[in-house]
Design a protein that fits this description.
Elements: E1 4-7, H1 12-22, H2 36-46, E2 48-54, E3 57-65, E4 73-81, H3 90-104, E5 109-115, H4 119-127, E6 131-136, E7 139-145
Parallel strand pairs: 4-5
Antiparallel strand pairs: 1-2, 2-3, 3-4, 5-7, 6-7
Helix pairs in contact: 1-2
Length: 150
């Protein structure tokens, strides 16, 4: 069986199950920051979901928002990959797909927030061209410029 990349296929149960498995690989643990069930519901109802599936199991998820009417900032809210799939290019593929999507929609930037202690995530984002923006405490904003303002 091979990975299948899809968009907005997930349901609430698959998102919540995925987040629970990935929980302890977030810095800090995701469940320390949000209620996982409520977060899964918000992502399902409001975010663009870029997913990797192996059969009925969601292996990877990039969730973001591209709802700014001026098409300035798009936002990535979640990047999570099942632990057994770390280092196999799934996050790169999903992140690239999100970036390509918002670029085609005419957005100027992709913005995300990451814990300053999460070196692995920062390395992934830098590989895609993200640069550091402002920080507040342990929270670092990173930005990827897609085009210049007209």
């Amino acid at each position: 069986m091979e990975l299948v990349f899809d968009t907005n296929r997930a349901d609430i149960a698959s998102i919540e199950a995925h987040l629970k498995i990935c929980d302890t690989h977030f810095v800090p643990h995701l469940s320390e920051v949000v209620d996982l069930a409520a977060y899964a519901a918000i992502l399902l109802s409001h975010a663009l979901l870029f997913e990797a599936w192996l059969g009925g199991c969601m292996v990877g998820l990039v969730a973001g928002y591209a709802n700014d009417p001026q098409h300035e900032d798009s936002f990535i809210s979640n990047v999570s990959i099942l632990p057994d799939w770390h280092g196999q290019g799934v996050a790169n593929q999903l992140l690239s797909t999100f970036i390509d999507h918002v670029r085609k929609k005419g957005f100027m930037r992709v913005v995300l927030k990451v814990d300053a202690r999460n070196d692995r995530a920062q390395l992934l984002y830098r590989k895609h061209g993200f640069i550091n923006g402002p920080s507040e405490g342990n929270i670092l904003e990173m930005r990827l410029n897609l085009r210049t303002k007209k």
